[in-house]
Amino acid sequence: MIRVQLPTHLRVMADIGYEIEIEIEGPATQRAVLDALEKRYPMLGGTMREYSTGLRRPYMRFFACQEDISHESPDEPLPVAVANGQEPFLILGAISGGR
Fold first, then answer.
1. Is the CATH number 3.10.20.30 carried by domain 2-93?
2. Which of 1, 4, 16, 67 is the most buried (most CB within 10 A)?
3. Which residues of the chain are modeled with pLDDT < 70?
């Protein structure tokens, strides 16, 4: 079981709470987590990854054990603490801009 925390706009879209639990078959990776999320909540398809390439969308960030893993390979194993549910897999929408 993996705990996943989503940003508000995705929680509203999927009509879910702050944190959900998902089961993954095989190794716990970013790709496996996102595949399971999109399978369980089809309305989230294309919100975190591009439909055509499967690559992370700009301004979406993934965190595991308080580390930004957004630029790591989506097939890299997640930390053990995330894989066994001790720590959440956190998905955030990044913001840019400024003066």
1. yes
2. 4
3. 98
